[in-house]
From TrEMBL:
The gene is ispE. Pfam families: GHMP_kinases_C (PF08544), GHMP_kinases_N (PF00288). One of its GO terms (biological process) is terpenoid biosynthetic process. It comes from Deinococcus psychrotolerans. This is 4-diphosphocytidyl-2-C-methyl-D-erythritol kinase. Keywords: ATP-binding, Isoprene biosynthesis, Kinase, Nucleotide-binding, Transferase. HAMAP family: IspE (MF_00061).
Length: 283
């Protein structure tokens, strides 16, 4: 058993997000192509007598209010493990940003503990108890998410480059869906093959985000971030998830890295990163 296990917790983007409607249970049916990225948080896990969590890089709770801590509690309970772990979360991704950071951190916790304390536990079942996006991050690749996000169909995605830009505002996913419900502007399912085909060909990707208009009108910095991506020469701009991160596709790694550097210099209080889609088929 390694003394310390280090696990990468990737960010994700939504290559289009359709909200089909509101369900009777209060959740929403969605259709979204979800892609893991080369940027993310890092989790260190060390076997220990008790469960503890330390967070570096962000002011977050370190008890059961934190999804990482809850994921660990859930795993130990399901596995019947007596003992614990010393968890250290290095936060790189901005909070409440539409990049799935908390969900990815939770999934990475499950994966790490399953490696340190093997017990034949069904991680997908545990992930569903932690949040709609958590099961996706167990896959390790792109997927079409349907239902409330729990029905996942693995996809093959090209390793394209893009730029992420977060203007420093936090957006509640709950609020974003409430605002959409107020308008009733629900949307049809995405055409995943068409989106991935355009991405592979380097063309404008015909996607949309059903949440974007209602969020942007209430958070003007997001509109400014979209404008900044346009002005620097990126294409196929979109807000990821419920925001506030937006992204634009680049023609090459060099363009993505140069754009991210320029944007960070232009907006020093924002968060800008070049990122690559982690290619390959989810398993």
């Amino acid at each position: 058993m390694p003394e310390t296990l280090k696990v990468f917790a990737p960010a994700k983007i939504n290559l289009g997000l359709s909200v089909l409607g509101l369900r009777s249970d209060g959740y929403h049916d969605i259709s979204s192509v979800m892609l893991p990225l080369s940027v993310g948080d890092e989790l260190e896990v060390r076997p220990a007598p008790e469960l503890t969590l330390k967070v570096l890089g962000a002011d977050l709770p370190t008890d059961s209010r934190n999804l990482v801590y809850r994921a660990a509690e859930l795993y130990f309970r399901a596995a019947g493990v007596k003992g614990g772990a010393q968890l250290t979360l290095h936060k790189v991704l901005p909070l409440a940003s539409g990049l799935g950071g908390g969900s990815s951190d939770a999934a990475s916790t499950l994966l790490a503990l399953a490696q340190l304390y093997p017990a034949g536990v069904n991680l997908h079942t545990l992930a569903q108890q932690l949040g709609a996006d958590v099961p996706f991050f167990l896959l390790g690749g792109a997927a079409l998410a349907e239902g409330i996000g729990e029905r996942l169909t693995p996809l093959d995605a090209p390793p394209s480059w893009l730029v992420l830009l977060n203007p420093g505002v936090a957006v509640s996913a709950r609020d974003a869906y409430v605002w959409l419900d107020e308008t009733g502007a629900y949307t049809p399912p995405l055409d995943a093959p068409a989106l991935l085909g355009a991405l592979a060909a380097g063309q404008m990707v015909p996607y949309f985000n059903a949440l974007q208009d209602a969020v942007v009108v209430r958070h003007s910095p997001i509109a400014a971030a979209l404008s900044a991506l346009t002005q620097i020469g990126l294409h196929s701009l979109l807000m990821s998830g419920s925001g506030s991160t937006v992204f634009g596709l680049a023609r090459s790694e060099a363009q993505a890295r140069a754009a991210a550097t320029n944007l960070q210099a232009q907006f020093p209080n924002w968060w800008a990163r070049a990122a690559q889609i982690r290619s390959g088929l989810a398993v």
